[in-house]
DNA sequence: TCCTTATCGATACGCTGTATCAGTCACGGT
DNA sequence: ACCGTGACTGATACAGCGTATCGATAAGGA
């Protein structure tokens, strides 16, 4: 039906303690502590010392809450100063700022991939990205394709990064059960290339993998932009 | 703890009607009908005409079920014949086969981005991908980076594709509420580049966007492989 | 001062994943 | 042939979830 960001908050005649920023902040704290599953309306309400149904004066549903949380977290991404450096440097800086927030709030990655980025901060982010790529005489289609490739890689790679750090494992230290299973599965001989990688290749550092892939994408964009 | 694919199914002394493939098939049917949310243990059990707790002889949790569903759906991806064409053609074919399945089962996209691809079909998929990129003398690191960029883009772009087809809208026909909201939000003047794209740029066809971005990534890989 | 209307607090419903436990059936050893 | 044993089933139960509903309440306008 309607869109969260166009629904006004109620005039607070009664009590000033509850507004959307407070609710979203509580939700974010819960997410940081226990992942998105921990963001329950009851949990948020309890953290604000309020009854659950009170939240429905500010939200229509839990989906609204997650939309607001996604946009608020997007707002945490510090957009670099516009217009400095060439487009490559600008895109690198944007990616770095995004990854920074995504590493601080792992749950944000799945929001990023599943919620339309149409909140105020999401729009600002997109505006910055398109402006960074834009140049006089560039066809709109080319612009969209380049932004698409960049965003697609960014979102996908962040997902992959989380997959490599399975639950219950500290960063860069895979869960031993999964690792030994992999060794066994690959040892069967039916996956020779995987086996080679598994034995020869050292574990990829997340940052290294991200940046290498990013350069690949930037190279591809460069080939199209000239 | 342990990994689903290494846990044996129980010896079926009593009844032959229930095994993992049947359970996963039921789960897939439910997902096709109502998305991942519709895949509940009670729903799967009802569809198999069985009491819910019976499933726990074959699974440890709902997470197991989703892991199995993800791998089974990965198995639907028809891996092209190995070794035909150059690496570019091979990667294009793999991407096309993947997108085909993802479009048939939209829910698969979020599984793809959130479940480790370590089931038998997932391993086969990765083996195919790495083998398609491999060549004599290529450093393992380069191989990993290229595969990483490809997979990252693939997963991210599929997510983006779903975001552009919001719930309640048929494919390529955005929900009108969201569209008119966007028009209003962009008209504020604070997003000039977005505004230009919104008015000048025609709606991107999903397939076109995907393929354009893929070529960008392939170009980038080519620049690194030589 | 009274009425209207927005807000609050509480209760309740249907749904979820899954722990528990008593009953039952099929098999293996003797 | 029998019977103990252990695997498997079916039923019930519990805590948690999102949220619909509704009477009580308190504030603002006349």
Automatic annotation (TrEMBL), chains A, B:
DNA-binding region, residue range(s): 40-59
SUPFAM superfamilies assigned: Homeodomain-like (SSF46689), Tetracyclin repressor-like, C-terminal domain (SSF48498)
InterPro entries on file: Homeodomain-like_sf (IPR009057), HTH-type_TetR-like_transc_reg (IPR050109), HTH_TetR (IPR001647), Repressor_TetR_C (IPR004111), Tet_transcr_reg_TetR-rel_C_sf (IPR036271)
Pfam families: TetR_C_1, TetR_N
Domain of life, source organism: Bacteria
Residue span(s) of domain HTH tetR-type: 17-77
GO aspect biological process, one term: negative regulation of DNA-templated transcription
UniProt entry keywords in alphabetical sequence: DNA-binding, Transcription, Transcription regulation
Molecular function (Gene Ontology), one example: transcription cis-regulatory region binding
Name by which UniProt lists this protein: Transcriptional regulator, TetR family
